[in-house]
Amino acid sequence: MRRIKKKFFQFWFWLFGWKIIGEVPIEKKFLIIVAPHTSNIDFFVGLAARSIVGLRSDFLGKKSLFTAPIIGAFMKSVGGHPVDRSKNTNIVDQVVELYKQHDEFVLTLAPEGTRSYVPKWKTGFYHIAHKAQVPIAVVGFDYARKVVDFNGLFHTTGHMEKDIEKLLEYYRTIKGKIPENATR
User: Fold this and answer.
1) H helix or E strand, kind and range, residue 166
2) d(CA 171, CA 165)
3) pLDDT score of 86 more than 80
4) Which residue, among 143, 130, 157, 120, has the nearest Cα to 31 in the 3D structure?
5) For residue range 27-64, what is the model confidence (pLDDT) as tens digits?
6) Is 54 left (phi over 0), alpha (psi -120 to 50) or beta?
7) For residues 66 and 88, what is the distance between their CA atoms, to the nearest angstrom?
8) Which of 44, 155, 173, 175 is most buried (CB neighbours < 10 A)?
9) Per-residue pLDDT tens for 103-147?
C-alpha cells in the first residue's frame, strides 16, 4: 500500500510540477516545522511529500477536524492527533512526554497554528523541541517555485526570540499559496 501511495503522489507531484529538494533528516526523533501555512492545500502537499520520501510523522490538528466520522477516521489514519484549543491542556508537556516514550518519533507542526494571517508565530513548537531536546527540521512549502524544501536541522539555544528570528529569515524567502496570510 505504501508503494502505491508513493507512486500516486509522485505522479501528482509530476503532474502539477512540484519537486522535493534538500535532505530528509535521518535522526530518529525530531520536530518538523512547515511554513508558511496559508491554505488547506498545504495539508495535501505535506501528505504527498511525506509519502514520497517515506517519512512517518504525526501532526496535531484542531479537534473539530476529528469529529466527523469519515474525516476524523482519515485524519487519525494519517497520523493526526486532535487538540482542543479551547482548553489549557499543556500540550507542550504532553508532546514532550511522547518524545520520551518513543525510540522514534517525528511530529510536524505549523508555527502559525492557522491558515489565516497572524502577526507572530505560536511558540509551542519551540518549547516542545527545546524541552524534548530534539532538533527542528526546517521545511518550506514554496508555491512560487513549486518546491517542498527540506532546509536542514535547527537546534534551539534557549534564546527563543533570537532562534525564532533566525528561522523566520529563511521562511521570509518562501512564498505560501496565499502570500498575504504568511507571518513576516
Assistant:
1) helix 160-171
2) 10
3) no
4) 130
5) 999 999 999 998 989 989 999 999 999 999 988 877 88
6) left
7) 19
8) 175
9) 999 999 999 877 777 778 989 999 999 999 999 999 999 999 999
Cell of 27: 535522526
Pairwise CA distance, residues 137 & 148, whole Å: 12
Collapsed DSSP state (helix, strand, coil) of residue 129:
helix
Of 51, 34, 163, the residue nearest 107 (C-alpha) = 34
Burial zone of 123 (CB within 10 Å; 0-12 exposed, 13-18 middle, 19+ buried): middle
Give the residue among 163, 158, 162, 145 at the shortest CA–CA distance from 22: 145
The residues, any chain, with a CB within 8 Å of residue 49's CB and separated by 6 or more, are: 9, 13, 20, 55, 148
Cell matching residue 69: 466520522
Q: Which residues contact 56 (CB under 8 A, 6 or more apart)?
A: 50, 79, 106
Hey, CA dihedral for 129, 2, 149, 151, is it positive or negative?
positive
CA distance 65 to 18: 27
Give the amino acid at 70. Answer: I
Q: Quick one: fold of 2-179? A: Rossmann fold (3.40.50)
- Spacing of C-alpha 8 from chain mean position: 21
- Cell 496570510, residue located: 181
Distance, CA of 35 to CA of 110 (rounded, Å)? 6
